[in-house]
Write a structure and sequence with these properties.
Length: 245
C-alpha cells in the first residue's frame, strides 16, 4: 500500500457510479468513498449533470436508465467507455467504501472482487456452467479494465440466468468459465470476505470490511444519505421552467 500525507494512493483505480435514481445519495456515497483515498479518477455516470456535483467528481453522460435491466446492460457493455484506468471501483447509493484503512494490496490481484454471497442450499443458485457453486460476486467492488471491456470485446450475448439479468451474476456465474478461459481471475471467498459485506454469512463474523452493500446486520451502522436538500429541488424546478419556455 502506498500512502501520501496519510491518504491511500489508488491512482490506477477509477471510483465510479452509474445511476439515474437516487443521484444525490449516490454523489454523497462517492464523496464518502473518497475520504482518505486518492483515486486516479472519480466519475458519476448519469443522464444529466447534477447541480450539486463537486468539481473533483467528473460527469460522464449516458442515456437515462429507466429500468434495472438498463443498468445491467450498460454496466456490461458501456462501462468501459467511461473508465480509462487499470481498475474501477463500483459503488452505489447503498454500498460504498467505509473503512479505507482495511484496504489490502491483494484486492488488486484479481479482475473482480465483491462481497461474498450466501450458500443458497440448492442445486442451481450461483451455479456456473459446470454446476460449480460460486460464492463471490456483488456489483459493489473492484474490476479490472480488461474484465470491464470483456463482454463487449468478445460479443457476449445479453442473456438471462434463471430469468435474471444481474450483471454481477452474468460475469461471476453465468459466463465465469469464459472469463476464466480468457485468463482473468475472480477473487475467492477467502479474500472477498475482507473486501465487502452484504449478506451476514458466518464467514465474515468478526471482520471489518473495506466496503459494504445494503444495510443488513453489522452493515446497519454505516451512513444512509437522505434525499436532495430543498434548495436543490427549488433550483431544479426553476431550471425546468426555463427549459420548458
Amino acid at each position: 500500500m502506498e500512502y501520501l500525507n496519510g491518504r491511500l494512493q489508488l491512482k490506477n483505480v477509477t471510483l465510479c457510479a452509474m445511476t439515474s435514481v437516487c443521484v444525490y445519495e449516490t454523489v454523497q456515497a462517492l464523496k464518502y468513498s473518497m475520504r482518505r483515498i486518492d483515486f486516479g479518477d472519480v466519475v458519476l455516470i448519469t443522464h444529466r449533470r447534477p447541480i450539486y456535483l463537486p468539481s473533483n467528481i467528473r460527469y460522464s453522460h449516458t442515456d437515462r436508465l429507466n429500468t434495472i435491466d438498463d443498468f445491467n446492460y450498460k454496466m456490461l457493455y458501456e462501462l468501459g467507455d467511461h473508465v480509462s484506468t487499470e481498475f474501477a471501483c463500483i459503488v452505489h447509493y447503498d454500498g460504498f467504501i467505509v473503512h479505507p484503512e482495511c484496504f489490502r494490496d491483494e484486492f488488486l490481484d484479481y479482475d473482480y472482487i465483491g462481497a461474498p454471497w450466501p450458500d443458497p442450499h440448492d442445486d442451481f443458485t450461483y451455479r456456473d456452467a459446470y454446476g460449480r457453486l460460486q460464492r463471490v460476486g456483488n456489483s459493489v467492488g473492484f474490476r479490472s479494465k480488461r474484465l470491464i471491456d470483456f463482454p463487449k470485446a468478445v460479443g457476449l450475448p445479453f442473456e438471462a440466468d434463471h430469468g435474471y439479468f444481474h450483471e454481477d451474476g452474468f460475469l461471476c456465474v453465468k459466463n465465469r468459465h469464459l472469463v476464466e478461459q480468457a485468463g482473468m481471475r475472480i477473487a475467492p471467498l477467502e479474500v472477498a470476505k475482507y473486501f465487502s459485506h452484504q449478506t451476514m454469512i458466518p464467514e465474515i463474523e468478526g471482520i471489518t470490511p473495506f466496503a459494504f452493500h445494503k444495510w443488513a446486520g453489522t452493515n446497519s451502522q454505516y451512513p444512509r444519505f437522505k434525499g436532495e436538500p430543498e434548495v436543490f429541488k427549488r433550483i431544479k424546478k426553476k431550471v425546468k421552467k426555463l427549459r420548458d419556455h
